[in-house]
Amino acid sequence: MTTATFEDLHDLMSTMAGDEKHREAATSTLDALWVLYDRVLRVTPEMAEDRDRFFLSKGHGPMAYYAVLAARGFIDPAELRRFGAFRSPLGMHPDRALVPGVEISSGSLGHGLPLAVGTALGLRARGIPSDVWVLIGDGELDEGSNHEAIAYAGRVGLERLHVIVVDNHSASHGWPGGMEKRFEVEGWSAVRANGRDHDELEAAFRAPHPGAPRLVVADTGVR
Ligand SMILES: Cc1ncc(C[n+]2csc(CCOP(=O)(O)OP(=O)(O)O)c2C)c(N)n1
């Protein structure tokens, strides 16, 4: 484990060139990822079986994710300089077979939440006390696969499932009554937090939600 701080993350991210198109997708996730890995998630590079799981579903623009993994000792910070290069393990979409600490390969949107539901169910069935966190984008929520997963997770009361939607207001469709309502009607606990305020994010990540899966909307404002 390194002793890197949040301030170091910007330096780590600036060493990754070559994906300017997705830089905003990365910067909007930086604060939520940092608070999660620094204050909440029980996971170390040893990847114990009872670790908490984190799935980055919004796989485009993974620079913030790689920077946080480097800051927390999963990957060598020097590797960041080869981000996106030929044969670099740090591709423009994360590959679980190549990057230590990465639980799912992602890039095709709409798969992380269904995978997280299955993982949380499996862990619960085996009596393993792990939480499962998944980060998705507000635009990504339009994918229909998410809505089957939201309905199912609510019905089976997956209390150890936590969804972070980073809302940078890029969604094309929107939801009647707001994004939180879409989850609440399925039995979820839902809260919106300032996606740049670390203490507010931590409070939202830690608030009790007995018997129900949890949604935290990390609102980063219009980009
Ligand atoms: C299944 C699928 N359809 C379309 C895309 C193309 N795509 C890449 S990023 C993106 C927008 C995602 O928006 P959002 O989830 O809000 O993330 P942001 O880029 O705003 O951070 C789309 C549609 C994809 N990667 N996967």
TrEMBL record:
SUPFAM superfamilies: Thiamin diphosphate-binding fold (THDP-binding) (SSF52518). InterPro entries: THDP-binding, Transketolase_N. Residues 22-206 form the Transketolase N-terminal domain. This is Thiamine pyrophosphate-dependent enzyme. It comes from the Bacteria.
